[in-house]
Amino acid sequence: MTSPTNRSAFETALFSATMLLIPPIVRNSLIEDADFRAEYGLKTSALVNFGTSGLSIDLEAFVKSVKDLLNGVSCTEIESASGEKLVLEKGEGGKNIILFTANRERAINLPDFYQFSPVRKNRLAGLRRDIKESAFPKVDAKKWKEIIAERPLEFEEYEIFSRDFVNTPVRMAEQIRSNILSGKSQVSDLVPKSEIYYQRLIGSFDQSKNIQEFSSNVVCVRFAELKSWNRSKGLSYSLMVASHRLISSYIDINDLKFSELSNLMKYLEDNGDPVSLIGGIECGIRALSAHPELEEHVINLVRILLEDDLNETSKGIHLYSSIVILVDGELSRLKVFADAPPFYRRLASLTHAALVHRQLMHLNLGVDQFHKWVLESHGVNFYAQSFADMRQEPRWSPDMLSPEQVKAYLLGRILVAAESSREVLERTKIHNIIFGDQPESVQMQITFPKSYMPGPLEGDADATPEMPVEFVELIEKQLYSEETGPSSFFALLNFALIFKIDSNYAQHTAEILKEKQYHLNNVENVQQLISILSRLATLAAVTRSTKLADELLLLLRAYRRDKEYKLSIDEYIHIGLEAAASRSERKEWCVYVGNLFQQLAFSELSCDEAKSAVYYMGSLCRCVPQLWRTCSIADAAFQAYVGIEPH
Questions:
Q1: Dihedral of the CA atoms 377, 628, 401, 351 (nearest 10)?
Q2: What pTM does this model have?
Q3: Distance (Å, rounded) from C-alpha 273 to C-alpha 276?
Q4: What are the CA-CA distances from residue 124 to residues 109, 129, 170, 225, 332 (Å)?
Q5: For the chain, which ranges sit under pLDDT 70?
Q6: How high is the pLDDT of residue 367?
Q7: The dihedral of CA 31, 37, 42, 46: what is its sign?
Q8: Calpha distance 20→587 (Å, rounded)
Q9: For the purposes of burial, counting CB atoms within 10 Å of the CB of 103, is it exposed (0-12), middle (13-18) or buried (19 or more)?
């Protein structure tokens, strides 16, 4: 908390109101600036908490007592925030500080608080230890080294110092684990809002245009820093970033001793999140020629992914998918990296989700209940942001984070890694586990097209390979046949996310929809209809076919009215938002989304349907504020259904 001193009540109220209008990131930066605080006569106050003890103490009073202790006082008395009498004493040999309750029934061991030591040598030694243990960036450590070399920290600086050192992957993992074990379950305890933390997790954004550039420019440098910090632990943290096979290729394990590699692989077998597992498999396969003794470890990692049954109590892929929804939905709500391209924020989300997964996987956690809570609390934020991201990266939609699709994608990556090292694998037992004809092999569990579809960092429209001639012939045979129905689009829609698609196919598909007066013949059931409509939307998105998207909008309207196969609100919105990605320019995209909701708003709706629509539309508008203008008519119409004031 912050308040101006020596000012009138009116000035204080005006200042406080103004500070609340400033974005939190800017406000916090101002409060942390000593010159700003001095100019406006600000005085900060904060409480320091001691784990699960339930004790809280005013930070300024606590720091004063610690300084007195370090300056030679044998013990100091202090009051907790609740008025309880407490005593601070030095521990044996002065290596730490102990906090006692007045009757000495409880004793809490505290750090040595080297930051307040009057001895310069002790302060610098403590700082070096902190930097080493937390993998704190040397560039950021420079300013703290200059201050601590000159004098002990002030209490206001200590709060900033502590927050800065928590914003590292090592310390954040420790804090999340501590919070979970203490019974805390707030989202803010699992998903930090500091952009600095995420920059230290994956590297700072450098204006790269895509994940390929970012990997070669930034990620590989970050991996080298982690490895120089601690060879084994650094690689463990690097593997959490391996959400794309290109990123995994920058993780070098060839110069590690077998004992180091073995310990790392054993750690992954016991604690590995799905991202680290696939990264470990890819690195292990590449390293087999130099380290053939890794074979059993690689087999174990492959089997962990193969045997994940994806049931609602699984703490593997199912839990990881839920955590990604939570993290990415929360980062969207907090506007973290709002100006960066989608792949960068998503990489931060995927990597932090891997870190959180490691802390949660061994707890007695009801995964099905956790997943349900995540969808209810953050599902709309995640879906809205992901659909907005498709304007820039149209080849990945939020539905592709389902546990089934994630597993299919990971098995596809195993197969690609194995194919590139097939000669080496032919001499190992791994070859049969991956390429064998038994039902439980990787190759036999590969499904088309799921295992060949893009991953969450592969949404770039320009990243697809050219289509083989035989597939082109199959598409044209189906698409240009005299009889039209669902079978006319099967090949085209199955290949849409795998190969580059000629935009003429999308144009012809649009003409078929118009010619058939926005009705699909020979549809067997509603599930087939939804699948076809969703894939048509995907085709419109990846080919940037505005014509197909426009015709699809009319088709959606028709099936909202259809008595046999009427689309639900969620189905209508999801398919329409996917088709909106046919527009790469924000202005055109906003107009299309506005038309999508306006068409829905002036259709027949129940009150509950209108509430669902306005809730979803509001979430989407918070992701992309420019939408408020194009959705204003729909907003007013929806509110008329539910009887409340428009936004």
A1: -80
A2: 0.90
A3: 5
A4: 22, 9, 21, 22, 39
A5: 1-13, 15-16, 19-20, 23-45, 51-53, 184, 461, 463, 644-647
A6: 83
A7: positive
A8: 31
A9: exposed
Q: In angstroms, what CA-CA distances link 342 with 205, 235, 392, 587, 620?
A: 12, 26, 8, 18, 15
Burial 458-480 (b: 16+ CB within 10 A, else e): bbbbeebeebeeeebebbeebbe
Distances (CA, A) of 573 to 421, 537, 610: 44, 11, 12
Q: Kindly state the percentage of the chain with pLDDT values over 90.
A: 68
Query: What confidence tens digit (pLDDT) does each residue in 50-71 have?
Result: 766 678 888 888 899 999 999 9
Q: Both ends of the chain: CA-CA distance in Å?
A: 31
Distance CA 148, CA 130 (A): 13
Reduce the secondary structure of 448-463 to three states and give it as a string.
CCHHHCCCCCCCCHHH
Find, among 380, 329, 277, 311, the residue nearest to 611 by Cα: 380
* Beta strands at 75-79 and 56-58: parallel, antiparallel or unpaired: unpaired
Residue 84 has phi, psi (to 5 degrees) of -75, 135
Each residue's pLDDT tens digit, 74-105: 889 898 888 889 998 988 777 789 898 877 88
d(CA 362, CA 579): 40
612 contacts: CB under 8 Å, gap ≥ 6: 569, 570
% of the chain surpassing 70 pLDDT: 92
Rounded distance, CA 116 to CA 467, Å?
Answer: 66
CB 354 within 8 A of CB 320: yes
Cα separation, 291 vs 283, in Å, equals: 11
Helix (H) or strand (E) holding 534: helix 526-543
Q: In 3D, which of 328, 353, 326, 331 has the Cα closest to residue 194?
A: 331
Grouping H, G, I as helix, E, B as strand and the rest as coil, residue 109 is strand
Token couple for 223: 């991996």
pLDDT in tens, 350-373: 999 999 999 998 887 788 888 889
Q: Which residues are registered as beta bridge partners of 77?
A: 87
Is 106 strand, coil or helix?
coil
| 522 touches 531 (CB < 8 A) | no
Structure tokens that stand for 297 in this block: 């470890």
Query: What is the Cα 214 distance to its own chain's centre?
Result: 17
Alpha carbon dihedral 452, 458, 462, 463, in 10-degree steps, equals -50
- Rounded to the nearest 10 degrees, the angle between the axes of helix 231-239 and helix 220-229 is 150
HSE toward the beta carbon, residue 161, CA cutoff 13 A: 22
Question: How far is 355 from 176, CA to CA, in rounded Å?
Answer: 9
CB-based contacts of 499, cutoff 8 Å, min separation 6: 464, 465, 466, 467, 468, 471
How many other β-carbons are positioned within 10 Å of the β-carbon of residue 516? 13
